[in-house]
UniProtKB/TrEMBL annotation, chain A:
It comes from the Bacteria. GO terms for molecular function: metal ion binding. InterPro entries: Metalloenz_LuxS/M16, MPP/UQCRC_Complex, Peptidase_M16_C. Gene3D superfamilies: Metalloenzyme, LuxS/M16 peptidase-like. Pfam families: Peptidase_M16_C (PF05193). This is Insulinase family protein. It comes from Thermobifida halotolerans.
Automatic annotation (TrEMBL), chain B:
One of its GO terms (molecular function) is metallopeptidase activity. One of its GO terms (biological process) is proteolysis. Residues 179-358 form the Peptidase M16 C-terminal domain. Residues 25-159 form the Peptidase M16 N-terminal domain. It holds the Pfam family Peptidase_M16_C. InterPro entries: Metalloenz_LuxS/M16 (IPR011249), Pept_M16_N (IPR011765), Peptidase_M16 (IPR050626), Peptidase_M16_C (IPR007863). Belongs to the peptidase M16 family. Keywords: Hydrolase, Metalloprotease, Protease, Zinc. This is Insulinase family protein.
């Protein structure tokens, strides 16, 4: 027989305080840095407010094309990665709706060399026509390849069901808009939005002996100050809501579905209340949706919910992949769980889980240079104060059940939702009509962004 | 936030019941990364019981003697911790990163399921997790373009009955056949402290961690009988094999494997460098020749080659590429064969240096987080009984010469030691055509 100890009590929690970043102006740019002594890898990120939402309508996808083309480096012909590899560094690029991020992850001792390569790559890339065309054609084909994955297809279609304008098309511009882009358009976008704009440089890592001013000067050069960006709330897509759209994928043994509706802009919501509520519904492994659809019914490998909150608007999504014959019932169960949360509210234990996971868990959330850098990026992109993480912690500490309940009533709108299902239309249509959620239509995925 | 700035301070202990404990300092403060590698994986499965080690991994989260179903996840998530598990051919890995004050609780949860899992598993739980795993299989294999490639590769690279002949996910039929009695016997056979490496990365003193681990795990007896794995020995080449599959995929694709020596051997390290020269990074040959110059393959960012690192049998040198529009699978396959064969004609010092840099970068990046460091320490201890390798591993590549890489490429990357799997876009009813 084994001799087991009784269950231990939790040790005394230690309050986590997000490190106060060093912030210095260098030329027209700003360096935001956090020193993590002993951290062997440093994360360097350069932020430009040149995300997909700022693209001209006729040039949709150009930001992502430029982001990819930077990897061809100052000599063209995909020369950047091999140059970084010599320093044990790796390129980081991410173009989102609201930001254009470039950067490197590099050994702390090679930081200066890696930042120098970053500066060259961003400010003076070759951007040769042959390279841009190659990258563009690859993006077009990759978009089609990725659409063959059911979950990707369903997620990408959501924008076209909820919005008009830029958000109706995926950030890459899809295959249709992307293939209209020319090298001249790409070079022009780069010159106007990236090369000539200083941006903000985030550096997290062991900064022992690092001269931040020098690094900033290498990256910013004589670039102009970063302009203020103004965006407006997008219009709603036409069509009855709620409704179900099936993207036909004959023979699928699983259905990927996304239930989505519009949400407010990031600045218009109280994040702990909104995201805490989503955690209870579908944001955690122990969320209601996961416990129902996975742990009780065995319909799925996993389900999640989240708010995608942007500068000018937002989206709430629940997404999962379920065994095909259970599709209709899975949607019914999902709707029931939303209704139950709105009707009865959260339990005390759910409130506690949300509160503690976002307070006690902060050291885990920021346990690497990379993660801390992304937190700083968020602060820069959304004009948040540098004690944002601590304010969020305070918000979660004060959270009440009524806060979450009110949030569920105010921010969950299944009556205004669209459910996009990527699956076998022939077998799904009848059962989906029977659940009475709304009209059911079938669409050929190839016609989505035509 | 605190940081001790320490590095290269690994402590090792072995409890009387055989448990091996490794401790190391974390580069960020206030967290404890707990990582457990049990020496059981799908190589221990027998025909008719495939998928069991992985199904069992799911059951480990479903309740034990003193922890109700769902409680393990609930407790760690409520602390803001991160947890999960994975199963491979060679091992089963459980891990959680928690705020440091929760270390005792995490250790207790792990100890409880090691000691008392058999008191908590029910038929209902088994049935539920069987359905979950079947959905995992649908999601990752059956409803995914090219999702069955890995399964087909193992089936052809290792002979029928060999313990690496099947993937960890197992077959639907075998999952359906799993029964509760076998669950209980599997736990008894494989889950003992003598089959466990436990690593804690934190800012606590090593002795402190040792005392805590001894408190929770010290009373758990070693297994009465040490389970043996089926014989995985294998000699010689794959043979010259190929398979063409017609499926509803978006474009033709090519998957090629060659058998190479086991993980941990110098020969494996040599082939690791060969793999980096050939297909890792945008400076690699496959990327430069087939993506950039010839426009035959889809841009994967320079991730077309890798090694499946099997410790207890021959590993696999693996290449995969997807064809561009207008490029046939056959044309791409021929091009991949040509580039692979060209390694035997020689490689440059600059290519080798780049390959070393890529592998070193990947290694050091993987150990730059508390969780990554803990996982790598567990790995090297479980597989090689040497956690110090975490800091010396890249040195293995330093002494390998270009001539050595070329020599092994000549011997191992040959048509006689190759299985090639090609996906073609189905034009009619899906059909398989085996060649040779």
């Amino acid at each position: 027989m084994s001799s087991l100890q009784p269950r231990p009590a939790l040790g005394e929690p230690v309050r986590y305080t997000f490190p106060k970043p060093t912030r210095i102006k260098v030329g027209s740019g700003t360096v935001v840095a956090v020193d993590l002594p002993g951290q062997p890898y440093a994360a360097v990120r350069l932020i430009h407010p040149a995300g997909a939402i700022n693209e001209a309508h006729e040039h949709m996808g150009v930001a992502i094309l430029v982001g990819e083309s930077l990897e061809d480096g100052v000599d063209g012909n995909s020369s950047l990665a091999p140059a970084l590899e010599r320093y044990g560094a790796e390129w980081v690029g991410r173009v989102g709706w609201d930001s254009f991020i470039t950067g490197v992850d590099a050994p702390a001792r090679r930081l200066k060399d890696a930042v120098s390569l970053l500066a060259e790559a961003v400010r003076t890339p070759a951007l040769r026509s042959d390279d841009i065309v190659r990258r563009r054609d690859q993006l077009v084909e990759r978009f089609r390849l990725e659409n063959s994955v059911a979950s990707t297809l369903a997620s990408r279609a959501v924008g076209s069901q909820l919005f008009t304008g830029r958000y109706a098309v995926p950030p890459s511009g899809g295959d249709v808009y992307q293939q209209r882009l020319t090298p001249e358009i790409a070079r022009s976008f780069h010159a106007d939005n990236i090369a000539s704009v200083a941006g903000t440089l985030v550096i997290v890592g062991d900064l022992t002996g690092v001269n931040l001013e020098e690094l900033g000067a290498a990256v910013f050069g004589d670039a102009a100050p970063t302009p203020q960006r103004h965006t407006a709330a997008p219009g709603a897509a036409p069509g009855e809501r709620p409704r179900i759209v099936i993207l036909d994928r004959p023979g699928s043994v699983q259905s990927a579905f996304v239930l989505a509706h519009r949400a407010p802009a990031r600045s218009e919501v109280d994040l702990p209340r909104v995201e805490g509520m989503s955690d209870v519904l579908g944001g955690m492994f122990t969320s209601r949706l996961n416990l129902e659809l996975r742990e009780k019914h065995g319909y799925t490998y996993g389900v999640g919910s989240r708010f995608d909150l942007r500068r000018d608007s937002g989206v709430f999504v629940i997404s999962t992949q379920v065994n095909a014959p259970t599709t209709a019932h899975s949607i019914t169960v999902t709707l029931e769980q939303i209704a139950e949360l709105q009707r009865k509210g959260v339990t005390e234990s759910e409130l506690q889980a949300v509160r503690e996971s976002h307070t006690l868990g902060l050291p885990v959330a920021y346990a690497s240079a990379g993660r801390m850098a992304w937190a700083l990026i968020e602060m820069v992109v959304y004009d948040l104060p540098e004690d944002h993480v601590d304010r969020m912690r305070a918000g979660y500490e004060q959270l009440t059940a009524e806060d979450l309940n009110r949030s569920a009533r105010e921010h969950l709108h299944p009556d205004d939702a669209v459910v996009v299902v990527a699956g076998d239309a022939a077998s799904l249509r009848g059962p989906l009509e029977e659940i009475g959620f709304g009209p059911v239509s079938v669409q050929d995925p190839d016609t989505l962004w035509g | 936030m605190t940081s001790n700035g320490a590095a290269r301070q690994i402590s090792q202990y072995r409890l009387d019941n055989g448990l091996r404990l490794i401790t190391a300092p974390a580069a960020t403060g206030q967290v404890a990364a707990v990582n457990l590698w049990y020496g059981v994986g799908s190589r221990h499965e027998v025909p008719g019981r495939t998928g069991f080690a992985h199904l069992f991994e799911h059951l480990m989260f479903e309740g034990s003697g003193n922890v109700p179903k769902g409680e393990h996840f609930k407790v760690i998530e409520a602390l803001g911790g991160e947890l999960n598990a994975s199963t491979s051919s060679d091992r089963t890995n459980y891990y959680e990163t928690v705020p440091e004050p929760a270390l005792d609780l995490a250790l207790w949860l792990e100890a409880d399921r090691l000691a008392t899992l058999r008191d908590g598993v029910t038929q209902e739980v088994l049935d539920n997790q069987r359905d979950v795993v079947k959905n995992e299989r649908r999601q990752r294999y059956d409803n995914q373009p090219y999702g069955t490639a890995f399964e087909r590769i193992l089936a052809h690279a290792y002979p029928e009955g060999h313990p690496y002949h099947h993937p960890t996910i197992g077959s639907m039929a075998d999952l359906d056949a799993a029964d509760l009695d076998y669950v209980l016997s599997f736990h008894k056979a494989h889950y003992g402290p003598d089959n466990l490496v436990l690593t804690v990365v934190s800012s606590l003193e090593p002795e402190d961690v040792r005392e805590r681990v001894a408190r929770y795990f010290g009373g758990i007896p070693a297994r009465e009988t040490v389970a043996t794995a089926p014989d995985a020995s294998l000699e010689g080449p794959i043979g010259s094999k190929s398979l063409v599959v017609e499926e509803q995929v978006p474009a033709p694709a090519v998957f090629v494997v060659h058998r190479v020596p086991p993980y941990g051997t110098r020969e494996f390290d040599v082939m690791n460098l060969a793999s980096a020269v050939l297909g890792q990074g945008q400076g690699s040959r496959l990327y430069r020749r087939l993506v950039v110059e010839r426009g035959l393959a889809n841009d994967d960012g320079g991730a077309s080659s890798d090694l499946f690192d099997f410790r207890y049998t021959q590993s696999l040198f693996f290449i995969s590429m997807i064809a561009r529009d207008g490029v046939s699978g056959e044309e791409l396959e021929t091009a991949v064969f040509e580039e692979t064969a060209a390694l035997a004609d020689g490689i440059g010092e600059d290519e080798l240096e780049r390959a070393r840099a890529v592998l070193e970068r990947d290694h050091f990046q993987s150990i730059s987080t508390p969780a990554g460091l803990a996982n790598t320490l567990s790995s090297y201890t479980q597989l090689f009984d040497d956690p110090e390798l975490v800091y010396t591993w890249p040195e293995r590549w330093a002494s390998i010469t270009a001539d050595e890489v070329v020599d092994y490429a000549k011997r191992l990357l040959t048509p006689e030691n190759r299985f090639s799997l090609r996906y073609e876009v189905a034009t009619s009813e899906a059909a398989e055509k085996a060649e040779a």
